[in-house]
Design a protein that fits this description.
Elements lengths: L1 H23 L10 H20 L10 H19 L1
Amino acid sequence: MIVIQLVLILLQLYSYVLLARALMSWIPNLDPYNPAVQFLHSITEPVLEPIRKLVPPLGGMIDISMIIAFFGIIVLEQLLRSLV
């Protein structure tokens, strides 16, 4: 049970990281070499890249990988909460 709670906390933290990455994408002229930008990119890209390979951008422009990742986290959290 402690392991499940730890995973739930980690999933919540990762959703905050994804949110930060999404908000960061709205900032114009953001320096891609900024250490914070590189950190967020390096820890979110391993999750987002496989989703992008499965689901191409809508209309060639709209990337929904972030939405799918959030949905996946929510589903996983609900499954884990049902086990507790």
